[in-house]
Amino acid sequence: MLTLKFAVLPGDGIGPEVMAAALDVLKTTTSAAGIDLDYQQADVGGIAIDNQGSALPDSTVEVCEAGDAILFGSVGGPKWESLPPAEQPERAALLPIRKHFSLFANLRPGLLFKELTDASPLKTERIPDGIDIVCVRELTGGIYFGPKNTRELEDGDIEASDTMVYKKSEIERILDVAIASAKSRSGKICSVDKANVLTTSVLWRKTATEYLAAKAPDIELSHMYVDNAAMQMARDPNQFDVVVTENMFGDILSDEMGIVCGSLGMLSSASLGTQNNQHGHPFGLYEPSGGTAPDIAGQGIANPCAQILSGALMLRYSFGLNELAEKIENAVRKAVKDDCRTGDIAFGKPSMTTSEMAQAIMDRL
Ligand code: NAD
């Protein structure tokens, strides 16, 4: 019997609530297909600081290393906001995990179901069929990881610098992820850069052009400057299919895509590593795009869809179980279409609790 081994890190706030729902959906989906789940749970973020004195204890890293993927909730909250920035849950847990597992590719589906167009700040006539795009962001290079410096100048002034660095090989490996994504979709990639100003972007654009021509000539490649891409995302997001970009531009653009797609409670994400797991697929970390939602934590009313859809991405990318992933995605779509809603996506319809929403999804698997 096939067994899926992964780490479960629920984290803080609504994390444990939506994680319980996602695990229920995963168990129901896989057991019907004769697949076993072997997961181990561990503390991360604020709860790990409280219990073990560190946002990412060694024991948690060991649990992650023992599995083929990580299903992650979210971390942080008001209780830990007074800690020094370097010790705060997001910075002290998420960034080191990304680094430790070389999670270089972040995929965020920008998916807004037709039934939920009300959730988007865009006028419905601009997105009559909802939104369906993907942002592929390079996650371990660029200005966030390049050399940094702060120094006092001779005249007493203070100067700080961050350096944006990219290697051709780093650009090519993120292009591989974008190509794979585009091949499973409409075959279009828009590469976003700032090649009119930045040297790294000149290399990015040249590499994208040459690499796509050599490796995937059937893919339609376009280039866009990041300032224009930000405008186009707000004007007509569906002109994109797969957007590929460097770390900082992707950080900003993917958040813009998130708000254009409505509730954070629906948005999942996958961060893929350089290493393959024992199934021959990338080791990855799968998490909702939103945070710990302290305003509704503990009430059992959070939307579990983002966490459930993150579980579906884990099945697809780290275990190669595309059909089961689609089964979950279709069940979520069907539940929403049948007016099963949590408060964040209710828009006048009756609201369900987190566990009722999970049950509605399981009923439609
Ligand atoms: P947030 O994303 O937690 O919440 C923003 C708004 O969206 C809130 O009104 C919240 O109720 C709503 N929301 C988010 N997810 C929802 C869901 N599943 N169902 C229903 N409503 C949902 O943003 P914030 O207030 O900026 O951050 C809160 C905490 O989370 C902070 O400590 C922050 O550092 C942390 N955070 C963690 C991550 C992560 O772990 N990856 C990401 C972002 C923020």
Question: How would you sum up this structure, described in words?
Answer:
By secondary structure, the chain is an alpha/beta fold. The chain folds into two domains: 1-111 and 263-365, Isopropylmalate Dehydrogenase; 121-260, 3-Layer(aba) Sandwich (Isopropylmalate Dehydrogenase). It has helices at 15-32, 46-52, 58-66, 89-100, 168-183, 199-215, 226-235, 247-260, 305-317, 322-337, 354-363, and strands at residues 3-11, 36-41, 70-74, 103-112, 131-138, 148-152, 158-162, 188-193, 220-225, 242-245, 268-276, 282-288. The strands form two sheets. A ten-stranded mixed sheet has the order 2-1-3-12-11-4-5-10-8-9, sandwiched between helices. The chain has a two-stranded antiparallel sheet with strand order 6-7. A hairpin with a 5-residue loop joins strand 11 and strand 12. The radius of gyration is 20 Å and the shape is globular. It starts with a strand and ends with a helix.
> In the CATH scheme, what's the topology name of the largest domain?
Isopropylmalate Dehydrogenase
Major sheet: 10 strands, mixed
What integer is the average pLDDT?
A: 96
- The H-level CATH homologous superfamily of the largest domain, spelled out, is Isopropylmalate Dehydrogenase
Instruction: Specify the CATH architecture of the largest domain.
Output: 3-Layer(aba) Sandwich
For the biggest β-sheet, the strand order reads: 2-1-3-12-11-4-5-10-8-9
Structural class: alpha/beta
User: What's the shape?
Assistant: globular
Helicity, as a percent range: 25-40%
CATH class of the largest domain: Alpha Beta
Low-confidence stretches: none
Task: Note the run of SSEs as H and E.
Answer: EHEHHEHEEEEHEHEHEHEEHHH
Question: What proportion strand?
Answer: 15-25%
